[in-house]
Amino acid sequence: MKKIAFICTANIKHMTLISLYTDVFKQAGQAFDIIYVDKYHELEKYNGAGKLFRYELKLNPKWSFTKKFIHYWGFRRYAIEVIEKESYDFLIVWNEFTAFMFEDYLRKRFAGRYCVNIRDENYNHIPFIQWRYKRVIEKSCFNTISSDRFRKVFPKGEYYFIHSYNIELMKDITPVLEKRSEEQPIRVMFIGRMSYPESMKKMIDALANNEKFEFYMIGAGCEEFEPYINEKKYKNIVIHGAFPPQNTSVFLEQADIIYSLNKEHDTHSDTLLPIKLYYAVGKHIPILTFKSSYTYEFAKKHNMDIGINTSDFPHIAEIIWNRYRELDQRRIDAGCKSAMNEIRESHEVLKKLICKYIVTI
Fold it and tell me: 342: which residues sit within 8 A by CB, 6+ positions away?
């Protein structure tokens, strides 16, 4: 049996869809370890994992980007020591920053014995970063991307687009059968970690005290808006802070539209496919997003789109109301079923890659 390890510059709880790999490993009776960075100073567990090698990262939020980067780089030394000591046969390199950090080591010591899972786009416009990406991708067994639009911003190469749909997380979600009536307020929901407060504040102001809407803000960082909402005496805004992932389905039961407004005409925001999109797919409801994004392109293809431009914010309530009312639930259902077929097909592609290069079932 091979010795296999995941290596990741993030906490285990942020390794979205690691189960797509580990479920196959469990079927094959294959053991695996996880080498990861702990930014939250907490001991994590992962069901089925052998050894967990935790590198505790202590960062001061006030530090400059350069100082934070240097401290992050300490993980490289720690992880290489673990890899050499454990004598792994294969590495699953989780996220693009991990691939960037270990580029030269992977090429020299693990050429043809690792795969790269690209989750996001960051600083791809910098030539040196592109150069390291190109080199690490060239020597891997296979490379996966979580958005098909990443092909435009990463070096040319062979990539497999794998959707980040968590079947286990979404199994308790009941698809919507019919839209809200005109007499009921439309429930727009942001769910996740707050990362674009500027767009969120515009949305709060746009929907505030409008009896046609309720705006749900669910997740870490949302509670920071409570003083503002209380000061303005907004009555139709519902806030809940951080929550355990297993409670996701409970909150989603209240959603009629998923909010996913990040930043317009921004490479990072426009190229990714957020987890929020898959919440909408699973629940058979539309997603609100900027028209410049790949999220909008995907949603429009599957008849579940509510797209806007930044210039639409003064009239966004009217735009959302009209678009929601004109969407046909039967077409949304058909679109989401079509999207699910694409998702399952991509998961099968990954399973075949794992069985070809890593384990045998």
Answer: 163
Q: Which residues lie closer than 8 Å to 297 by C-beta, 6 or more apart? A: 149
- In angstroms, the CA 337 to CA 9 distance is 34
CA–CA gap between residue 41 and residue 57 (Å, rounded): 8
Which of 125, 142, 73 is CA-nearest to residue 104?
Answer: 73
How many angstroms separate the most distant Cα atoms in the chain?
65
Q: Tell me the DSSP string of 133-157.
A: HHHHHHTSS-EEESSGGGGGTS-SS
Residue type, 340: M
pLDDT tens by residue, 151-172: 999 999 999 999 999 988 888 8
Query: How many Cβ atoms sit within 10 Å of the Cβ of residue 264?
Result: 17
pTM for this predicted structure: 0.94
Report, as ranges of residue numbers, the positions in the chain whose pLDDT lies below 50.
none
pLDDT at residue 170, as a whole number: 86
DSSP annotation of 17: T
Residue 155 · residue 130 · CB < 8 Å: yes
Rounded Cα–Cα distance for residues 313 and 205 (Å)? 9
> At residue 95, what is the residue type?
N
- Coil, strand, or helix at residue 267? helix
H or E, element range at 309: none
Cα dihedral 9/12/16/19 (nearest 10)? 120
